[in-house]
């Protein structure tokens, strides 16, 4: 008896589905190409992929070589589900797309649950949920733009989904691939220009800036985080930016900017709600790291000895 193949979810494979190469393959709608790409990404042979999809190796080979096709909707939907593809990629209408409100509600729930998964240490699962949503929203938006329409709620949801995907990728990608995560957050910036919403823009800039920082594109990170802080509409929004801004300023080696941001954070700590990143303990750690990054560790120790 052939043992069932578990659904692939290895961290090293996830990021491939967010690359330009993957988008080209998916946009083609070519089932054979999609199957070959899936096997290459996840390290499966034709027998293992066939077991996952419920077909034998010979049939998988025929599909990949385009000697056979899948025509019935049920089979295509099942393949899409097993490969975690948006159904429209295989030419199947997604029921969520037939009802606009249902699609938006489904998308918002997906973004929220993916963020919870990421914060709980399950970033791979977050990526697996978000990239099909992004693909679905992009396809809908493209179709609507061809008709001369663009729904603001779809644009806003797409921006949140892209940011969420970028941040989740930033948690699972190897260091040399972190620019890919930053790329996805950047794709949301053009959308924010369509809204007169400082809070929304500040949020996207904050996420974009932090992914740039993680990718060690530090100068650009500081610029984005400075802009995010300037647009923050209230103390809570500003408190979300300042720790990341201070980190980036310290890593850039800009002592003056780092000190300025930390002074503002110290002032705000009494007026804004505390979070996992904005609290006295987190700010203390950021301050110590910043002092080291700006080469002031020795003078600080000397000052401590003088006070003692």
The whole-angstrom Rg is 23 Å
Structural class from helices and strands?
mainly alpha
The main pleated sheet reads as: none
| Extended strand count | 0
Low-confidence stretches: 1-12, 298-308
The coarse silhouette is elongated
Question: Fraction of residues in helices?
Answer: over 70%
Average pLDDT metric: 83
Order of helices and strands: HHHHHHHHHHHHHHHHHH
Word description of this protein:
This protein is mostly helical and 308 residues long. The longest helix is centred in the middle third of the chain and has 24 residues, at 123-146. Helix 3 packs across helix 5 (57-64) and helix 8 runs antiparallel to helix 9 (123-146). It has three domains: 11-92, lambda repressor-like DNA-binding domains (434 Repressor (Amino-terminal Domain), Orthogonal Bundle); 94-195; 200-308. The chain is 72% helix and 0% strand. The radius of gyration is 23 Å and the shape is elongated. The protein starts with 10 loop residues before the first helix and ends with a helix.
Question: Could you name the key traits of this structure?
Answer:
308 residues, mainly alpha, 434 Repressor (Amino-terminal Domain), 3 domains, elongated, disordered C terminus
In a few lines, what is going on in this structure?
With 308 residues, this protein is mainly alpha-helical. It has 18 helices and no strands.
